[in-house]
């Protein structure tokens, strides 16, 4: 038993953390979508979300200067709005019972995949100020409630004809800011318990290794392969979420 969990389950969690780190470094997202549902099997939704937020913060420090250089300017107002809205999501998570919260988190993962299947934007499309603002607010609310800022942010960038490096770095800027706000809010309201810290510390080394591998892979794959990976990541998360709903 490790941290009160069977060794096999701990090994599976470490492997999942490595895979999630690779996906994050390569695609620019996927850490929360892949880890929150898994952690929810051994912890409360609140513990899983808080642990994932802190994982995103400390992993986001690696390669941060490169991410800032490559990001589109829209990432910064989206990130600022996400930080402002995240505390509301954290408070909401604390008010919702665990069972409905798990259901909502699974549905969010499915929605992220559905969003990416929407038709792509026309070449040269520039989102309106209202769309940009709504993306930031929605990302913050979902960060606080589910640890998943991706559902509004991923289609905002991936449905446009942006270079993969720009889209990935833009998403990473938003996710880092939202996770930082979520982690700090959890501390401020007393939602960051010791178990959340232990989960984050246990998984962090594997996430960092995976993230490093993902960054290296990103520099070696073609834009077409990169888009296939991003779609497959969301599809896998949606499939897992659908299975969980069917078994509930």
For this entry, give a set of tags.
mainly alpha; 0% strand
Q: How much helicity do the residues have?
A: over 70%
Q: Major sheet: size, sense and barrel closure?
A: none
Counting structural domains, the number is 1
What's the number of extended β-strand segments? 0
Helix and strand element order: HHHHHHHHHHH
Q: Give me the number of helical elements.
A: 11
**Gyration radius over CA:** 17 Å
- In whole angstroms, the N-to-C terminal distance is 27 Å
Could you tell me the mean pLDDT? 83
Unreliable stretches (pLDDT < 50, length at least 5) are none
Explain what you see.
This protein is an all-alpha fold. The protein has one domain. It is 79% helix and 0% strand. The protein has 11 helices and no strands. The model has no long low-confidence stretch (mean pLDDT 83).
């Amino acid at each position: 038993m490790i941290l009160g969990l069977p060794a096999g389950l701990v090994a599976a969690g470490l492997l999942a953390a490595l895979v999630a780190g690779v996906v994050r470094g390569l695609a620019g997202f996927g850490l929360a979508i892949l880890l929150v549902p898994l952690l929810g099997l051994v912890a409360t939704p609140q513990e899983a979300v808080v642990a994932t937020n802190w994982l995103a913060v400390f992993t986001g420090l690696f390669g941060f200067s490169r991410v800032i250089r490559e990001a589109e300017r829209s990432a910064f107002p989206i990130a600022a709005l996400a930080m402002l809205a995240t505390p509301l999501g954290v408070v909401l998570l604390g008010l919702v019972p665990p069972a409905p919260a798990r259901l909502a988190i699974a549905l969010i993962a499915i929605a992220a995949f559905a969003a990416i299947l929407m038709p792509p934007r026309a070449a040269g499309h520039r989102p309106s100020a209202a769309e940009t603002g709504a993306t930031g607010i929605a990302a913050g609310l979902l960060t606080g409630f589910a640890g998943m800022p991706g559902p509004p942010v991923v289609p905002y960038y991936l449905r446009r004809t942006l270079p993969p490096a720009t889209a990935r770095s833009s998403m990473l800027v938003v996710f880092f800011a939202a996770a930082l706000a979520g982690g700090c809010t959890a501390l401020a309201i007393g939602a960051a318990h010791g178990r959340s810290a232990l989960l984050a510390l246990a998984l962090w080394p594997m996430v960092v290794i995976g993230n490093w591998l993902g960054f290296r892979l990103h520099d070696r794959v073609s834009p077409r392969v990169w888009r296939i990976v991003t779609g497959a990541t969301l599809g896998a998360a949606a499939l897992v979420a659908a299975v969980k709903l069917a078994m509930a």
